[in-house]
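Notes to self after the Tuesday call (sharing in case useful).
The group wants a holo model before anyone commits to mutagenesis around the pocket. I volunteered. Ligand is 2-oxoadipic acid. Logging inputs and output together so the record is complete.
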Amino acid sequence: MTDVQELAATLDDAERSVRAIAPLTDGGPLGVADAYRVQRAVLARRTARGERLIGVKMGFTSRAKMVQMGVDDVIWGLLTDSMLVESTLDLSGLIQPRIEPEIAFLIGRRVRSAVEVDAAVAGVAVGYEVLDSRYRDFAFTLPDVIADNASAAAFGVGAWHDPRELGGIDNIGLVLEIEGRLTRTGSSAAILGDPMRSLRAAARLAERAGIPLEPGWVVLAGAATAAVPLPRDAHVRVSGAGLGSVAVTTV
Ligand code: OOG
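Result:
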């Protein structure tokens, strides 16, 4: 039988000690349902230390990411307030950070099922996610990465825009610049054809997990490009056509 608490402690310790570990599945088989139990158990450890759940992130919603990571199923991870970045991100607590441009949603009212989610969107923004696999070299199987909270580490979002004023978000050009250099470009179309599909997938996972999406929560729809290594002492900007931009300085 899978020892969920023990696996959660292993991942949590890896994160806190900033030391990469071997995939959990090296030690024996791990099913997807148990992997999500481990993910929840890691969250419970974090909330016991005072962190607060403030949203979810979707993973593997784009082909670029599926191909990059060799995985082909949509997953989610849980976001806490300690992961939200204002303008500076200290990389000393991260093992092997990577960054990717994202579309973010702000939830305006409680969502218990997927049919309610479109109407519950209070804002859309350009954002970024900083990934940090707790597994050496980002080498993992699907259950491993689920247990590891979909490699979630940090994220930032730009100004919220009224979705009704955007006239569709299925083809928003996204640009990632590091130190003023154009590093990645993509379209929100890469996110399941339309980030709204990713949002609905999040609502379905929420329903299944019995974790309603709450007002004020952020849903990160997933990357529009492959992730790139995030260097120290760098100024990074992610822009979305019609959505403005969000910047972060790493130290
Ligand atoms: C897993 C997280 C994938 C995305 O946007 O597809 C993800 C990883 O690549 O380490 O967040």
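Two things stood out.
The domain at 4-250 is CATH 3.90.850.10 (Fumarylacetoacetate hydrolase; domain 2).
The longest helix spans residues 32-48.
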